[in-house]
Amino acid sequence: MHETQAPDQAATYRQIRWSGMDLLARREHSGWELEQKLVQRYPDSLPLIERVIHDLQDELLQSDQRYTQAYVAMRRRKGYGPHRLMNELREKGVDSEMVVEELNQPEHEWAEQAGLVLRKKFKAPASDFKERSKQMRFLQYRGFSHEQIREVLQS
């Protein structure tokens, strides 16, 4: 915080910072998400909110990269694929390059994940074209690529 701020502005800065830290203590937030929530609470303080977020990022209390890793891990456990996660994270204001880098990490093994999701939903392999189409649509909806779906349905 800067020394030249008026006392009431300094108090507002502290309130915003406290609110931001409270939100981050509950779960990770993207910078954009955090800004949106703070703007709802303090609608007339956008410049202070931006400074608070910048300060939180400098102190590594808020990190879009950490948020992206946590988000991908959580949604992957729930059975969602990379295409869907890319769209969801874009909507949450995360940089596309950061998302692509995280989604391409070798530990994610998306085709294997698609197979697990498919076996959980459909106990038996597709017996005909109609059932195979249904399984393909399900995996597409979950956000898996055509290549990943093809690999899973061929095995």
Q: What's the CATH C level of the largest domain?
A: Mainly Alpha
Helix fraction by DSSP (H/I, runs of at least 4):
over 70%
Derived structural class: mainly alpha
CATH architecture of the largest domain: Orthogonal Bundle
Into which percentage range does the β-strand content fall? under 5%
> Spans of 5+ residues with little confidence (pLDDT < 50)?
none
How many distinct domains? 3
Radius of gyration: 21 Å
Number of strands: 0
Question: What's the average pLDDT?
Answer: 94
Q: Report the end-to-end length measured between terminal Cα atoms.
A: 58 Å
How does the overall form come out from the CA principal axes? elongated
**Biggest sheet, open or closed, and with what strands and sense?**
none
CATH topology of the largest domain: Arc Repressor Mutant, subunit A
Written as H for each helix and E for each strand, in order along the chain, the element string is: HHHHHHHHH
Verbal overview:
This protein is mostly helical and 155 residues long. The chain has three domains: 7-62, Arc Repressor Mutant, subunit A (Orthogonal Bundle); 65-108; 110-154, Arc Repressor Mutant, subunit A. It has helices spanning 7-26, 31-41, 46-58, 64-77, 82-91, 96-103, 110-121, 129-142, 146-154. It is elongated, with a radius of gyration of 21 Å. The N and C termini lie far apart (58 Å). The model has no long low-confidence stretch (mean pLDDT 94). Belongs to the RecX family. It is found in: Cytoplasm. It holds the Pfam family RecX_HTH3. Modulates RecA activity. Its main location: cytoplasm.
